[in-house]
Amino acid sequence: MLSWYVVLLYLHIFSVVLSIGPYFILFPLLHQIKSAEFDRLPAYLEPFRITVRITKHAGHVLVATGIILTWITSWTWDTSWIIITVLIMVASLYFIARAFSPLLRQLKAPHENRALLVSKLRRALIGYVLITLSMMWFMVAKPTLW
Predict the structure, then answer these.
(1) Contact indicator for 107, 119 with CB cutoff of 8 Å
(2) Is residue 38 part of a domain?
(3) pLDDT tens sequence across 86-99
(4) Count of CB atoms within 10 A of residue 5's CB?
(5) What is the pTM of this model?
(6) Please, which contacts does 41-48 make with residues 24 or more away whose CB atoms are closer than 8 Å?
């Protein structure tokens, strides 16, 4: 029989996959966004919008299951890897709000410098992936820093 711990753990891991995985499919779209005719641009921007939405909801599940798992295990809130993961998560929330939405809004409007905006979008994508992968590393490696 499956325990609640195992169910919560797998739900937590699945939400991590949903929080990071969809961003990797966006990299090939960047080239298309850069060169697409303006009237075809919404079709290439829609996966970004959907990915941000999926990530947001997966993040809610991730946080909720993380809190519950911390409560039902022997880990405490003053554990170094938990504190650092929470700090990185708060930074990533600010980052995702400031990085993707404004750039996607700018790309939806006619403008002269799409290449610059796509370059910023690429950097934002790389930054977000690195941030989320660093959180994942702390959760998996569980380093004791103090």
Answers:
(1) no
(2) yes
(3) 999 888 877 777 77
(4) 12
(5) 0.84
(6) 41/107, 41/108, 42/108, 45/104, 45/107, 45/108, 48/100, 48/104, 48/121
